[in-house]
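USER: Write out one fold?

ASSISTANT:
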Amino acid sequence: MLHMSGATNIPMSNINFEKAVTSAHSKNITIVTYCNGHTCKKSYQAARRLIAVGLTNVAAFDAGIFDWIQEVPSKAVLLGRSPAHIKDIILEPELQNRLLPSKKFFADSAIDKALLIDVREPIQRRASKPIPGSRKIPIDQFKKVLNAGTLDGYNLYIVDAVGKQVRWLQYYLKEIGFKNYYFLEGGSESL
């Protein structure tokens, strides 16, 4: 959905993450890991994992993809289009309108025609509290499930780990015109 131009997407959730990066790595380049931004720890975790297997030219980009796209839209891809258009960036107030505090989020998700969806990766689910009654659709599978039409007609209440990954989903939901969706403020770690 949103990435730096020329980047290779190898998620840490990939069971062969280190091997996949090592295979794609050229000794003459620096591997730069990035995620959502200043408060996201994944870029640092990915860099540490790569260094632990012996890769030396590794750096974590602290600012994250959202700062990158605002500063260098010509070197960014948004929804398959490059250069990215600043007008397509979802600003913080638009995201905030979709975030619900836990009490309201769970009360609203219990109504008819509502689906509670846990988009955390399996490793994230094992490391934190379960979300009772949720349908488990990892974030990398969400678009496929949405395209299949099985979520049409429902109000979606979506939980991620810390409230950051849902921002990625919002781009796609907005692009396809899906209107009825909400995110748990702070993700499952807020519970």
